[in-house]
Amino acid sequence: MTQDEDAPVNRKFDPRMLELLVCPVTHGPLRYDADRQELISKSANLAYPIRDGIPIMLADEARTID
Length: 66
What we know:
Layout: H1 3-6, E1 31-33, E2 38-41, E3 46-51, E4 54-55, E5 63-64
Antiparallel strand pairs: 1-2, 2-3, 3-4, 3-5
């Protein structure tokens, strides 16, 4: 492996994915928070993390929001 292959990859979330994704709890729409790298479900009061450009759409991984 070269040094470049060992380096972590900084992938970015593609906001066009919001056309396909819904909250797994409520099946409602999501909002992208680029600063926090999260997808927000207002209807479920949950924020799903985005890691390396990949949304983690598991309720167990989401944080509760006010």
